[in-house]
């Protein structure tokens, strides 16, 4: 039987399907409850806290569901970092928990595709559906002893830090594709959106973006080439990107030739 550590709300769809496996003996939702757990098989789902080594060592096994295809994108905000880097394959890994973050042997993985016209909210929405379908059967396989843990390939590993609100400021208008992926990775309502300043100091928040096939348009990176009801058409060092602001009313104060200012690295 499994002791589940989770911050999922009682009655959530994922919690329901996991409990229907008949494998969950108890559900704990706070760190204060961990002292009572010993010699148990523990499963973490949506558990944001790092476990102490002494807790891990006194359990039979501790498993975690991580939202990346390990060994890549260990750490926090895995979907966001993957989209920022232009990944088109996202997924989940069921792995053993060790002292090093997300570095334990992998028992099972599942992947899904994400298009460039989809954002981080689509990733979470589609990922939630996939997880409800995949995780119960994987847990049953694990309980029956049919899964073999495979060590992660450290030569392919990557670890990413927690993101903060200030990380949503655009830092470059280098490649149009990179700007598009940045906006997709932090699109509202997951965050307030990608941000940059106007030349007059106003902050713009963007909800979506796309690369524009407009080879004839040129300008310095960050220069607004056109403003219309579709948003801002902005020059990049390579290509042109259309940015759609969260507040359409702010478009009225902008015109072709104005510049957008990115944050300093």
From TrEMBL:
Formyl transferase N-terminal domain residues: 16-139
Residue span(s) of domain Formyl transferase C-terminal: 167-246
Top-level taxon in the UniProt lineage: Bacteria
Pfam families the UniProt entry points to: Formyl_trans_C, Formyl_trans_N
Signal peptide residue numbers: none
GO CC term, one of those recorded: cytosol
A molecular function GO annotation: methionyl-tRNA formyltransferase activity
Alphabetical list of PANTHER family matching this protein: METHIONYL-TRNA FORMYLTRANSFERASE, METHIONYL-TRNA FORMYLTRANSFERASE, MITOCHONDRIAL
Protein's recorded name: Methionyl-tRNA formyltransferase
Phylogenetic lineage: Bacteria, Pseudomonadati, Pseudomonadota, Gammaproteobacteria, Pseudomonadales
């Amino acid at each position: 039987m499994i002791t589940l550590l989770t911050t999922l709300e009682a009655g959530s769809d994922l919690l329901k399907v996991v409990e229907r496996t008949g494998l969950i003996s108890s559900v704990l939702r706070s760190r204060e409850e961990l002292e009572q757990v010993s010699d148990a098989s523990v499963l973490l789902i949506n558990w944001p806290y790092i476990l102490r080594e002494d807790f891990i060592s006194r359990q039979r096994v501790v498993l975690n569901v991580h939202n990346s295809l390990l060994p890549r994108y260990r750490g926090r905000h895995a979907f966001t970092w993957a989209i920022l880097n232009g990944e088109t394959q996202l997924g989940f890994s069921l792995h053993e928990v060790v002292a090093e973050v997300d570095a334990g042997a992998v028992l099972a993985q599942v992947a899904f595709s994400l298009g460039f016209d989809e954002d981080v909210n689509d990733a979470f929405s589609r990922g939630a559906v996939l997880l409800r379908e995949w995780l119960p059967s994987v847990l049953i396989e694990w309980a029956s002893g049919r899964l073999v843990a495979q060590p992660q390939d450290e030569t392919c590993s990557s670890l990413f830090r927690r993101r903060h609100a200030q990380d949503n400021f655009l830092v470059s208008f280098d490649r149009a594709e990179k700007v598009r992926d940045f906006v997709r990775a932090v699109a509202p309502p997951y965050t307030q959106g990608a941000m940059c300043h106007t030349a007059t100091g106003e902050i713009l928040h963007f909800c979506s973006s796309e690369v524009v096939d407009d080879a004839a348009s040129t300008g310095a990176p960050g220069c607004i080439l056109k403003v219309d009801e579709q948003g801002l058409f902005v020059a990049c060092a390579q290509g042109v990107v259309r940015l759609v602001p969260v507040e359409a009313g702010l478009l009225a104060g902008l015109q072709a030739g104005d510049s957008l200012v990115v944050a300093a690295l």
